[in-house]
Amino acid sequence: MMPSALEAPSKNTLMFVPDLVYFEPGALEYEKGRRIHAWAEEQNLPIRITPSHNRITGLPGESDLEKYRLAKRTLVVGVRKTLTFDTSKPSAEYAIPIATGCMGHCHYCYLQTTLGAKPYIRVYVNTDDIMQAAKQYIDERAPEITRFEAACTSDPVGLEHISSSLRELIEFMGQEEYGRLRFVTKFHHVDSLLTAKHNNHTRFRFSVNADYVIKNFEPATSSFEERIEAAGKVARAGYPLGFIIAPIIWHDGWEQGYAALLQKLAHALPPEAVRDLTFELIQHRFTKTAKTVIEQRYPKTKLEMDEAKRKYKWGRWGQGKYVYPDEQANALREFITERIFEHFPEASIDYFT
Fold this sequence. Notes:
The chain has one domain (80-352): pyruvate-formate lyase- activating enzyme. The protein is 33% helix and 20% strand. The protein has helices spanning 31-42, 64-71, 111-114, 127-141, 160-163, 165-174, 211-217, 224-236, 254-268, 288-297, 326-343, and strands at 20-23, 47-49, 74-78, 87-88, 92-95, 99-100, 121-124, 146-149, 179-185, 202-208, 241-248, 277-283, 311-314, 320-323, 348-352. Strand 11, helix 9 (254-268) and strand 12 form a beta-alpha-beta unit. Mean pLDDT is 92; it is low at 1-12.
């Protein structure tokens, strides 16, 4: 049963099972597409065929908000046709597309606007084509290392039980001398990835935050405790580990919140986790468009988006966003950086943005 239009979905860390599955005809020409179709039948899910994800119409729901929530429970299985990869700075050289959309309901997520009116979840079945395209990028840059970010448009860990695409990518990159894979997740369903032959070429990162942020703005994701337990498993499996603290949000008690976050990490992580540990720090930002969409989709949100309290920062493509003023941003960066090195003196911080 779906939540009412004015309620945030309750936190549910069970593996994602959609309410409705669409297949593009070409998807069933691939073994992975047929396997996902058999899985959907086993789950007794409604299955429909669509000529293209762009032509899906008539999703259920009486209001726009209800349609949005139901669309987030809709899976589209298709073929990735565009094999030119976008850049993914500062995380990696390129974004590698294996899925689009996310089952989480994080209020602040940039996918709210980039996916527009089509927030359904898509998985791609032609992973061999995607890996071959990645191989070409690697060969063009060799002997430089080429990093690929697999979580730019989705949280692929939350879909791995359906697609198995992450394991394929991990083992592919494990064989590439000059290729590296990176992805970040808010989900704890990592067991199927623990035995993958990663060869230390995949950095497995978890998104973490202060309790206030997770409680108020990250519905339908795994709890902090579940994420950290999963991080321990990943570290013991030999993966290089990282944490993204994002979005860093200025709120009442933020110092205590972020200090407690780093303290809990230090107490919970096994020794294997700290031998090659990275952090990425991203302050909260929003655009005017994002603010409008977020307030429509989460009308009860406590997310602060007051332009008068922010600094306008121009982006790479001539579009700007609102970030914290320099004084606040510097206070956040300095405080969290100090707490990181207090608990993890050998860790590295890749960037603050």
